[in-house]
Each structure stands twice: as C-alpha cells, then as structure tokens.
UniProtKB/TrEMBL annotation:
This is Cytochrome. It comes from the Bacteria. SUPFAM superfamilies: Cytochrome P450. Involved in the coupling of aromatic side chains of the heptapeptide of vancomycin. Pathway: Antibiotic biosynthesis; vancomycin biosynthesis.
Amino acid sequence: MTTDLGEVFARLPEVLREREPYPVLARLRESSPYPASDGVVVVAKHEHCSAILRDPRVSSDRSRARIFHEDVRPASRKLVDLDPPDHTRLRRLVSKAFTGRALAPLVTRIRATVHDLLDAIPPDKPFDVIKDFASPLALSTVCAQLGVPAADHELVGDWSRTLSRGLYPLPLGSVDHEATGDAARAGGRLLVYFKKLLAEPRSAPHGPVLDALLNTGDEGSGLSESEVLGICVLLINAGYETTVDLVGNGVRALLEHPEQLRRLTEDPELAPAMVDEVLRYDSPAQITTRVAVADLTVGGLRIAAGDLLVLLLGAANRDPAVFAGPDEFDIGRPGAGQHLAFASGPHFCLGSGLARVEGAAAFAAFACRVVEPKPLTDRLTYKATPSLRGPESLVVAFSGVRAAPPVLSRATADHGVGQGRRRT
C-alpha cells in the first residue's frame, strides 16, 4: 500500500464528512484488498465484502483482533458484536419483535407522522430537512417501538447522538478521547433510563418491540434484563441515527437530481425502489469491521488469523463490477437491492424492514407535497459520526406545501415490513 493511500485511509472519518467522498473511496476500492498496517486489512470491493460478511471464519467480536493489547481490548456484549452460539440465541429471540405482524401497527403511525411534520413546516421560511423532518420522524418511530414517553424523546435522542459521535471504528485515525468519553457516559445514561422505564408500573404496554422482547420464550429461555437493556440501547441508537441519515441522504440526492425528483413526484410508487438506491448511492452505514479467526485468502491476499478486516461498505456499494454507472443516481435502478448497507449474512440488519417503510413514506411525501424545493447548499454540513454518513443540516427553500393526499397507496406505506428477518 502506498504512503499516500495510507494517509487517506487514516483520515477516512474526515473524508466521510466531505460533500463528495466517493472519488476517494473509489481509489481505496481499486487498490483493495490491502494491508493498511500490521494486522489491519482494508476490503472495499463488493464481492469481497459480501463474502466476508457471510464467512464463518470471521468474527464480529473486535476484541479478538491481535492489534489490541489485553489491557485495551474493547469489551462488548452487544448483539452486533456477538458470534454464534450467543448471537444465534439472541438473534432468534429479538427477531420475534421484527416480524411483519409485530411491526404492522407502526405503518399507519409512520404515515401520519410524515404528513404531520410536513403540515407543521412554516410557510414563510426555509426548513431544515434533518431537524424538522428526518430526525423527529425517526426518533418518534423508534421511541414508539420501545414505549418511551413523548416528553423524553429529545432527551433519549440527544444521548443517542452523543453515543454515535464516539463510535470510532478503531484503528481509523486518532481517537477523540473526549468524544469516546462522552459516548460512554451517554450509553450508560441510556441503560439507566431503560432500567427505570422497565421498573415503572404500567397499565398499558411499553411498546410493540419492547413488549415482544420482554415476552420471549419460556421461563429460563428468554432474554435476561441486561440483554433487554443492551438491545434497547442498540435499537434506539441504530434505529434513530441510520434512519435520519437515510432520509437526509435521499432528500439531498433528489434535490441534486431534479429529473429524479420529478419522476418520483409523478410516480410515488417508485419510493420503495428509491430506498434501495439511496442505500446504495450514499450509504448511511459506511464502515463495519470483522476479525479473521482462521487464515484465509481474499482477492489473492493472504489474511492471517487475528487480522482486523475493515470493510468499506460505501465503496462496495458503488463497485462498477456490480452496478452499472455506479456514480449515477437512478431511483428505478434494477438490482439496487444488492447493496450492503444493511450488511449481509447472520448480522443482516434486524430493523431493515422498518427503515424501508420510513424511507419510502418520507420520500414519497416529500416529493408529492413540497413545492419547488431548492437546497441552500451553503448550509449543508455533515455529522461527526465516523462510521456513519449523513447531513447534520440540510436547509431547503420552497414555494409551498401541498395538502396531504387522503390515502397513500398500500405499496408505498407497507413496503419492507418484516424484512428485517431476511438472511442474504
């Protein structure tokens, strides 16, 4: 690996905050797989990332990487970091909360929330797609799943945002110790919050997902309290942050491709397909890691047991070997669903179905109701979340908001519910 590419890789968190990081990611993809340093291998081609995500010879537990000394190994019992058999047991129990039947009641609520948020846009000034639309939609949805009272939504959301800013995909660049410290405290506060929430006497259900978690299996075979609390924190953080990024990235793409915006306005049934294209074109989840637990070969490169594999999902999702014209945004693109934004294999995103519903509802409503939207590009900034990509702010000028249609099509509203259990 050249020194130049090594320097680019080291500053990848900063690159992902740029308006156009994909030319840099393309350079990294073209040279991959390659050793970034002793014990760290970069993988960025779609074929290789997809195979690694499914390979039983790799682990999701980063503490098994040999680059970490015993005294600094990142300890975690989060679902996303577990391997079989622990992961298999927890995944089977948690997936019951993400069936089509469990999530179906949320569809009507999501649709209503989308239109309520657009109805509330002040007609005489620009609005921020993130602050006024994407964030309250995603936050209210995930909080409804877990029974978080409306008065606590912003408190929980603030902790989640702080947690995301400290999730550094080590060993990328230098660690911001202040951010990681703040993140640890925010994670602890979320755990304490949900512990108190569970202890409160209630006459009504907590929320469909939390109730499903609390009623998994027979006595002795369900989830422990610590496991339920950890999953609550994971769902809040993952279900909130990545959905905000999905909506923000998608609206930005529509604004910068007016022909695609017109296409969606004329045919809102394209909204579900657009979700996959946004996930491919500008992935919220840009980076994930795995650890080789046996020697293997990827793209002709020998990987040693204990090597940390850094998978650049955003680069893989623009791989020309899989996607024709990968830098073009096409909301009707055939095969867009081959993206890896939801990962693949055993850790395929549990909440993918719900994210698809939220994204489709948001994109269809935005296209059909917001009249002549124009981005105020000088106000576009990106979040300091090292492994995720999404706007911090996306301010839009417009000339009006049309009245909400009386009924959204079932295809647009229901698309994707229950898909979180799918294995790919």
